[in-house]
Design a protein that fits this description.
CATH architecture of the largest domain: 2-Layer Sandwich
Helix content: 25-40%
CATH superfamily of the largest domain: ATP-grasp fold, B domain
Strand order of the largest sheet: 14-13-10-11-12-15-22-20
Structural class: alpha+beta
CATH topology of the largest domain: D-amino Acid Aminotransferase, Chain A, domain 1
Radius of gyration: 22 Å
Number of domains: 4
Largest sheet: 8 strands, antiparallel
Length: 507
């Protein structure tokens, strides 16, 4: 068994709000923090709150935050005991923990072996099926003809997915045989562009599903628990924007079953640290494995609010070789928590990023409000990275009160100088179907007129939108390939992509 160790200094291999959030827990634990930053982030908040900071290269993520050797070099120079990856960037790349091991630095996260087993969606499906985790019927196909044959056997509609992808890239719904050829080529092309791998697999499309995930936490001594569920069904472009727990659609008995299966799956790959099993929940109560995120989730604060745990602290303790201090029976879900992702983006133009300088920023406070942010007045939201400003979270004893509290918090939230999705969130939390808890992953598209007031993106312009998003942001969801950078002007005006798309949408 691994022996316990004590960290004195930890490097946070990330930026923005997650780097700030990890740093704050490190300071509470009496551990010195080291930040890394690109040229674009020299004045960023995560740099300001750290004890030390090291420049690791130019603005594009591929030349800075994705350079393993520069991360390791900074950790060595600073004399760090360990590295916490946050989420996104290198957080799910097994190359980083392997490099840490060679350098004698502890990686605060799961073993590289677990990452590799769960990193490919096709390999993960096979492994989870062997472990008794329910899998959506699907097939690995090499050609369009094979995909058509598999779809006929499974039954239309089906979903094409990039094997190495994430964040909604390389995904297409196919409703009939006639649509397959075009969708197949588009999915492969997009997968190649974003992930450097054009491998695509096929799954049965679950109509109007909920996206429900289970938080797991394990140590290096074989102990593993689940920390309940999160409903992440409010999504745009297959990317989450609102998360809550408990799920309005899942009974406690169902959550217990999902949790037990998630623990079973995590143990099957020798997992330790924090991780998340994502499931599709059908209307009949059946659920199917989607993927495992071998890292801390963006939406982890809602779990913390209802469980009382600090998941970052638990990750650090596990990495130090300590045992979990609680069993499954010790954990309880108290109250209701909701999170809104506040982005610098323009919902009226298909949620395209709207980078620029924040002139003023007033974040909400008061009872039951938590805002995890990485911005401040005068800072720039760069076109090089994900345009997340903060994660606004609320807690209340009941869902009804949590919804009311989020309305109040959103009304207090002020950002000037850039466009944000705050108005979208305010409309969402007034929508009667959301208030009633009746929603699924297609909610935003179904009610786009009420929520957004813009024309839907046509199939012909989806590729242009995808490229614009890729150029504007290094997405916080799994990043496995080279990151693209934009030469667009940073300012308070609409970005060129937004201007172009809005003009098209309003014709």
């Amino acid at each position: 068994m691994p022996s316990a160790r004590t960290f004195k200094k930890v490097l946070v291999a990330n930026r923005g709000e997650i780097a700030v959030r990890v740093t704050r827990t490190l300071h509470e634990m009496g551990i010195a923090s080291v930040a890394v930053f690109s040229d674009a982030d020299r004045g960023a908040l995560h740099v300001r709150v750290a004890d030390e900071a090291y420049n690791i290269g130019p603005a594009p993520a591929a030349e800075s935050y994705l350079r393993v050797e520069r991360i390791i070099d900074a950790a060595k120079k600073a004399g760090c005991d360990a590295i916490h990856p946050g989420y996104g960037f290198l957080s799910e790349n097994p190359v980083l923990p392997e490099a840490c091991a060679r350098a004698g630095i502890v990686f605060i996260g799961p073993p590289a072996s677990a990452m590799r087993q769960m990193g490919s969606k096709t390999a993960a499906r096979k492994k989870m099926a062997e472990a008794g985790v329910p899998i959506v019927p699907g097939a690995h196909c090499e050609t369009t003809d094979e995909a058509i044959a598999a779809a006929k056997k499974i039954g239309f509609p089906v979903m094409l997915k990039a094997a190495s992808g994430g964040g909604g890239k390389g995904m297409r719904i196919v409703e009939s045989e006639g649509e397959m050829a075009s969708a197949w080529e588009r999915a492969r092309s997009e997968a190649k562009k974003f992930f450097g791998d054009d491998t695509v697999f096929l799954e049965k499309a679950i109509l109007r599903p909920r996206h429900v995930e289970i938080q797991v936490l394990g140590d290096e001594h074989g102990n593993m628990v689940h920390v309940f569920e999160r409903d992440c069904s409010i999504q745009r472009r297959n990317q989450k924007v609102v998360e809550e727990t408990p799920s309005p659609a899942a009974s406690r008995e169902l959550v217990a079953r999902m949790g037990a299966i998630a623990v079973q799956g995590a143990k099957a790959v020798g997992y330790s640290s924090a991780g998340t099993f994502e499931f599709l929940l059908a209307a009949d109560g059946s659920f199917y494995f989607l993927e495992m995120n071998t890292r801390l989730q963006v939406e982890h604060p809602v779990t913390e609010l209802v469980s009382g745990l600090d998941l970052v602290r638990e990750m650090v303790l596990v990495a130090q070789g300590e045992k979990l201090t609680f069993a499954q029976s010790d954990l309880a879900q108290r109250g209701h928590a909701i999170q809104c992702r506040v982005y610098a983006e323009d919902p009226a133009s298909g949620f395209l990023p709207s980078p620029g300088r924040i002139v003023s920023l007033v974040t909400p406070a008061g009872p039951g409000v938590r805002d995890d942010g990485g911005a401040y007045p005068g800072c720039d939201i760069s076109s090089y990275y994900d345009p997340l400003i903060s994660k606004l979270c609320v807690w209340a004893p009941t869902r009804e009160r949590a919804v009311a509290r989020m309305r109040r918090a959103l009304a207090e939230y002020v950002v000037t100088g850039i466009r944000t999705n705050l108005a979208f969130h305010e409309k969402l939390f007034q929508h009667p179907e959301f208030v009633a808890g009746r929603y699924d992953t297609g909610f935003i598209e179904r009610y786009r007129d009420a929520l957004l007031g813009y024309a839907p993106v046509s199939e012909g312009s989806r590729e242009a939108v995808a490229v614009a998003v890729a150029l504007a942001a290094a997405r916080l969801e799994r990043v496995t390939g080279a990151e693209a950078a934009s030469d667009g002007e940073v300012g308070a005006r609409l970005s060129p992509w937004v201007e172009q798309h809005r003009a098209r949408a309003l014709r």
